[in-house]
Amino acid sequence: MKEMKAKKSMPWSNKDGAKVIFVYVINLIILSLIFLAGVAVRANRFDAFKEFLAHPQDFLSFAILVLLSIGFMAVYFLFEDRDFLHSPINSQMLFLIIELALIACFVFQNYVSQFSMPIALVALLTLFLSDTRKSSFVNVIFSFLLLVFSAYLNLAGGSEMFSLNLIYLYLMTFSSGIVATYLMSNVYSRSKLLVRSLVVSIPCVLCVCLSAITTTGMNFVKELIASACSGPLAVAIFIVFLPIFEGLFKKVSCFKFAELTDHNSKLIKKMIEQAPGTFNHAIIVSNIAEACATAIGEDALLARTCAYYHDIGKLRRPEFFKENQSDVNLHDDLTPELSANIIRSHAQDGYNLLIKNRISEKVANVCLEHHGTTPMLFFYDKAKKFTDGEVDINQFCYAGPKPQTKIAAIMMIADSAEAATRTLTDRSAENVTQVVRSIVNDRMKLGQFEECDITLKELNIIIGTTINTLTGVYHSRVEYPKVTLEGIEIQN
């Protein structure tokens, strides 16, 4: 297997390009309308508004600056993350985040204080709906756009277009967004977000102190309090709008993953009631998957969520799976081909069930991929005993696809390793090690990891982590003596 496989990019078509261009054009118009609405409010008099519009060169220069900003954003994604740009939905999500933040900032700037604006809102929403890299980049774009908006709104309001306050505005917008991106990146608690939001306000507080030195007649105490509220305000608005963005754009944040792994969530509760054996298996697999993901730097919460749902398709016919059976095995009365079809279908059934319940496609894809195209050797061997001719092993293979991500590869290993270890009578560290290494080697021979960018080094880390977790779960215990309490009096 290659040490590292080049990342595949989705094929690009003229139709896809046209959709993305349409999104950018529409949002250029929307940004212009937001600006004109701001001009109308800032000018405060219709005559002043008409006077501003009478100078089309001002509006034209504004439009060109905005066009350059969003054009730079398109070029960045074209070369750095074309798959993200491939979907017009992703571009629209980023534009909506920027537009929401601009409106919120304008309201607070106009009616409260420039230093109270929730300037970290863009960074927070982008961070929790995508990743740190996009959050940092979009924060740069937003910082420039807010600077441009504020400068031209000053012009419309009859004041000086450029001032020292605009420099402070850019500095605190850029720095607050960067602080929010890297300070909040591993926070999964809303209460911790609110506490850390005070740190996000520090750039605003510093800018107020600088402004007090260079500006006369400023109400320092009022502006200081306003600046301290900037971070908490951004987090409060973020908490309100995050579920809305998740629903609109079918994104899943860490908070949503936490809700999905709650034992009271709809499908998990159903699995506990109808397939308790499958649920217990999922719990152990989730511990393995979370530890492995952490060890190789992947999203541990996503891995845990995928583990909870990887066998959710067994809910369709739970009684046909060994972990949910008692003394009767329904496969004893079925042909090997029919049994294989039933077992094979749980991957596709799980995918369909998750999509139907609007659960993240990332989780659904792992559900579909966690067996790859591996063969079901038990039913293949059973079929060979029932016939004198050759048996096509492809009839007894899972439909795939093979794992496309590192999380799916982790799930394939963790799922098989837990199931195999459970069947061992002697679960010593040596036996568990042999089983896990054998599982990984077999899947490598079958080419199951060829379509994901996992490396040999990461596979070795996953093997070691899986062994440690399984030996911890199935550790040996002291054999207690068979002593009854009859005739024994305990002094209280």
Order of helices and strands: HHHHHHHHHHHHHHHHHHHHHH
Instruction: Give average pLDDT, whole number.
Output: 88
Output the number of helix runs: 22
Number of domains: 2
Rg, rounded, reads: 29 Å
Helix content: 55-70%
Helix and strand content put the structural class at mainly alpha
Largest sheet: none
- Distance N to C terminus: 66 Å
Low-confidence stretches: 1-8
Give the overall form: elongated
The count of DSSP E runs of length 2 or more, i.e. the number of strands, is 0
Percent strand: under 5%
Features:
single chain, 492 residues, mainly alpha, Hypothetical protein af1432, 2 domains, 68% helix, disordered N terminus
List the topology elements.
Elements: H1 14-43, H2 46-53, H3 56-80, H4 82-86, H5 88-111, H6 121-129, H7 132-156, H8 164-183, H9 190-200, H10 202-214, H11 220-228, H12 230-249, H13 254-260, H14 266-274, H15 276-295, H16 300-309, H17 336-356, H18 361-369, H19 377-386, H20 406-422, H21 429-445, H22 456-473
